[in-house]
């Protein structure tokens, strides 16, 4: 029986080198696909509770769409490949067990083309489809949720410190030995490069994107002093890998190598990230290249001016951007948010957001600010309906739960209001405050429905506590 299991495992490993899906994965050790999915979901909880994620649908949905485009041509997969964007200036991305893909905002901001971002994401998808992560777990068996959290904690330390120390800590964690999740072998990396390039081409992207991404990563990290990306950290022979990619490109038809780069949406997301999160001086230089005829660049400059409390300048820049692009949903949204947050013309803020939502009704970031305007104007029912809409998209967003809870409390819906404040504290990792709000909700619960809601909260909190305990 042991010999048969060994032969099956060897056959599966050989098959993984030529097939996009490890079809025999259930026979690998004892780490089944179900185990991988469970660990992936738990790891996602840890990431979301440890690192700030960008929930703006303009950013999140864009990255998810790129991942979906890469995955669509593949054979049927057991993974859904949910993507998340981590707010951090590191040039980094990684895949977790179960097909969860994480990309750092710094990576998106520093690449040159969408095909480069797609190349990195295709590389990560390949690590999943080839079961490199699961394979290391099956061979090592020492990897636990706690060891995975070590990587997250390293990055989180960098976030708290405002520098690249977290990235360095993460690299150190991964280089430490077999307990690191992403300490891939050379064979794994070559595999991910090869399949990643295939996935990139099959998705319709310019195949130069993967090599272009590696060039950016090499120049930014080795020349610029940033922390090394996760999947390059233990393999400094990047020149060899780039040479292989260039050799592969030479064998491809010119029609593939000359595919047009469609960077329109990519540029908009980049502009939004630089304007809201990037270094102001660097961002100013980037936006200046567009001159006064680029509406998205003008929006970015307006957002930067608002960040630095140059209100009059921001007003003028938003006006110029809207004059050039009066029906641009993103510019309308950001102009509305600016008017609201500066405490200016609430009528104008409301009009901008309403216009934005007519063009892009699924933008729940705009819906959230529109709900706040309704709340402030006394339309509690209208505001609460919008908060519920937002929570359908981001059910674990502490800020939305906080505003919704306060709005409910204002109309004397005490139990429900306290519960949402408890959720806000729970997802904000404030256990003491969560317990306090829960006790208030219990005391205020009168109807059977309210008591059921309290019980649902307790079950979610209990399950979350179990996951967090595993990581300690």
TrEMBL record:
Domain Peptidase M48: 59-247
Top EC category: hydrolase
Source species, domain of life: Bacteria
Signal peptide per UniProt: 1-21
Keyword field: Hydrolase, Membrane, Metal-binding, Metalloprotease, Protease, Signal, Transmembrane, Transmembrane helix, Zinc
Recorded GO MF terms: metal ion binding; metalloendopeptidase activity
Cofactor(s) recorded in Swiss-Prot or TrEMBL: Zn(2+)
GO BP: any one term: proteolysis involved in protein catabolic process
Membrane-spanning segments: 91-111, 142-160
Record EC number: 3.4.24.-
Identification of the protein by name: M48 family metalloprotease
Upper classification of the organism: Bacteria, Pseudomonadati, Thermodesulfobacteriota, Desulfovibrionia, Desulfovibrionales
């Amino acid at each position: 029986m042991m010999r048969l299991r060994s032969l099956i495992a060897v056959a599966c490993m050989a098959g993984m080198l030529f097939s996009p899906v490890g079809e025999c994965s259930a026979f690998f050790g004892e780490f089944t696909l179900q185990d991988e999915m469970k660990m992936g979901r738990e790891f996602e909880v840890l990431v979301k509770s440890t690192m700030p994620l960008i929930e703006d649908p303009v950013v999140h949905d864009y990255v998810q769409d790129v991942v979906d485009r890469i995955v669509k041509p593949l054979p049927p997969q057991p993974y859904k490949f949910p993507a998340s964007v981590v707010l951090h200036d590191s040039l980094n991305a990684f895949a977790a067990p179960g097909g969860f893909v994480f990309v750092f905002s710094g990576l998106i901001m520093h690449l040159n083309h969408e095909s480069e971002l797609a190349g990195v994401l295709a590389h990560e998808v390949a690590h999943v489809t080839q079961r490199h992560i699961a394979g290391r777990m099956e061979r090592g068996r020492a990897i636990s949720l706690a060891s995975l959290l070590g990587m997250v904690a390293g990055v989180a330390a960098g976030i708290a410190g405002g520098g690249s120390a977290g990235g360095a800590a993460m690299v150190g964690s991964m280089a430490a030995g077999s307990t690191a999740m992403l300490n891939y072998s050379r064979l794994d990396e070559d595999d991910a490069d090869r399949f990643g390039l295939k996935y990139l081409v099959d998705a319709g992207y310019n195949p130069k994107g993967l090599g272009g991404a590696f060039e950016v990563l090499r120049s930014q990290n080795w020349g610029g002093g940033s922390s090394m990306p996760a999947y390059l950290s233990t393999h400094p022979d990047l020149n060899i890998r780039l040479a292989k990619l260039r050799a592969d490109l030479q064998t491809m038809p010119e029609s593939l190598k000359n595919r047009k780069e469609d960077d329109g949406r990519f540029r908009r997301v980049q502009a939004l990230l630089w304007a809201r999160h990037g270094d102001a001086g660097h961002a100013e230089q980037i936006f200046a290249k567009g001159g006064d005829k680029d509406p998205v660049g003008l929006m970015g400059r307006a957002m930067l001016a608002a960040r630095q409390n140059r209100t009059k300048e921001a007003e003028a820049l938003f006006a110029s951007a809207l004059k050039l692009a009066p029906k641009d949903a993103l510019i309308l949204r950001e102009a509305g948010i600016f008017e609201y947050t500066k405490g200016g013309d609430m009528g104008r803020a409301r009009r901008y957001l309403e216009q934005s939502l007519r063009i892009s009704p699924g933008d729940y970031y705009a819906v959230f600010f529109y709900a706040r305007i309704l709340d402030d104007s006394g339309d509690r029912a209208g505001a609460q309906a919008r908060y519920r809409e937002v929570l359908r998209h981001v059910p674990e967003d502490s800020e939305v739960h906080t505003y919704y809870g306060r709005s409910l409390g204002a109309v004397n819906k005490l139990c429900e209001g306290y519960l949402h404040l408890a959720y806000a504290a729970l997802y904000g990792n404030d256990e003491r405050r969560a317990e306090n709000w829960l006790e208030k909700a219990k005391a205020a619960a009168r109807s059977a429905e309210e008591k059921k809601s309290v019980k649902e909260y307790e079950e979610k909190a209990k399950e979350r506590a179990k996951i967090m305990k595993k990581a300690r």
